[in-house]
Amino acid sequence: MIKLSDRLQVIANLIDKGQTMADIGTDHGFLPLYLFERDISPKVILADISKGSLQKAIDNVEDKACEEENTDSAFQFRLGNGIEVLEDGEVDIVVIAGMGGALMTQILGTNLEKSKSFKKIILQPRNAPGKLRFWLQHNGFEIVSENLVREGKFICEILEIQPSGNEPGQDQVQNGQEDDIKYEVPVSLLIRNGDLAIEFVQRKLNTEINILENMGKAVEIDQEKVEKTKQRIDYLQKLLNNEVR
């Protein structure tokens, strides 16, 4: 049976028994295979924009699940871009993992009505999480949970989201811009992630301190950027000291 990485295992744990799912950018197809093998998801859709990656998933399914019953009806393979390969509400859960946050906003924003037709979407951005959170909050989605998980030298973020019931622009949104540190490192990250969240914030703080130090060595100092970096450092320090609510 398939054994998942810690990152994929956290994603799998967010999917309940009986829920159907689509894995966008499936690559090797390990997550859908795991969910099928353990009788969690009766139907899994493996989708990828890369023909080569999708073929790897097909080969893995044929190798790992060839002796299982109902394999043909349980596994579906789709070659195409993002959620364009899905029908509205075709599955309960959509997983988009290992892509940049900006790309995720494009995938979901291409057809907002379709994106909101799924009960839940699980996102694991490789970068630009602040841009992603900003976009979600301003386009009618709510973040149900935020999880951190270690993968090698990285700490990955996993967002569980669902439609908020509001149309874009009607949400009670925070002030600020998409590059605001409050979107990049929200207070909510510390609620359920324990010591890993503290390490995550400390890493961010160390990065910002190094940036500020390097700014001071520049021939021409951009005072506006210096002040902004100082504000980011202040926020992260207060976050670590539980002074932000």
From TrEMBL:
MF (Gene Ontology): tRNA (adenine(22)-N1)-methyltransferase activity
Keywords assigned by UniProt, alphabetized: Methyltransferase, Transferase
GO biological process, alphabetically ordered: methylation
A Pfam family: Methyltransf_18
Name of the featured protein: SAM-dependent methyltransferase
Annotated organism of origin: Clostridium aminobutyricum
Lineage: Bacteria, Bacillati, Bacillota, Clostridia, Eubacteriales
